[in-house]
Amino acid sequence: MTRARPLITDLLGGLVVTAIGVAGFVESWRMPRFAERHADPFTVPGLTPGLLCAVLTVLGVALILRAMAGRGGAVAIPILEWPAGSAQRMIFTIASVFLYGFVLFGNVPFLIATGAFIFIFTIGAELLNADRELGLLPLGVGALVLAIVAAFAIRFIFVSVFLVRLPG
């Protein structure tokens, strides 16, 4: 593995993350602020996405600067030389996120959709892990507890803290 490839990967990744962060920040800035209704500035729709995109932008720039300084990660892996199983895990992750975002979310009550996603993702990710040490029963019980607790915690945070109405 050459030293230049991970740096190019970091540079390209940093450029993509920075571009996404800047675009998201600009779009969140363009969202309505409801100033004419004298809305509280901390409840405007673009605040949370804007903050998240600002963080993405800063992290993307940090990755670009690290690549330009020649300080790539010690365990950086070139993009086309993945270890065995990485492609399977990536495809599983993308497929499960799309299933949650496009099939479950909005069509199934939030708690059920989120709990099912977390349960399925936890089980699937562990089954694809070649170094898995847990048996199926402890894995299933742990995934179920995680899914239930996380679904309720996520719902509580979004509804009570961020004041976001969730589907279902």
What does this structure look like?
By secondary structure, the protein is mainly alpha-helical. The chain has 2 domains: 4-68; 86-161, no CATH class. Helices cover 66% and strands 0% of the residues. The protein has helices at residues 4-29, 47-68, 86-104, 110-127, 136-161. The protein is flat and about 55 Å long. The relative contact order is 0.10.
Q: Give the C-alpha Rg.
A: 20 Å
Shape, per Cα inertia axes: flat
Stretches with pLDDT under 50, minimum 5 residues: none
| Computed structural class | mainly alpha
N- to C-terminal separation? 50 Å
What does the main sheet amount to? none
Helix content: 55-70%
Could you tell me the strand content as a percent range? under 5%
Order of helices and strands: HHHHH
Number of domains: 2
Q: If you average the pLDDT, what whole number results?
A: 85
List the helices and strands and how they pair.
Blueprint: H1 4-29, H2 47-68, H3 86-104, H4 110-127, H5 136-161
Helix pairs in contact: 1-2, 3-4, 4-5
Provide a quick synopsis of the model.
With 168 residues, the protein is an all-alpha fold. The protein has 2 domains: 4-68; 86-161, no CATH class.
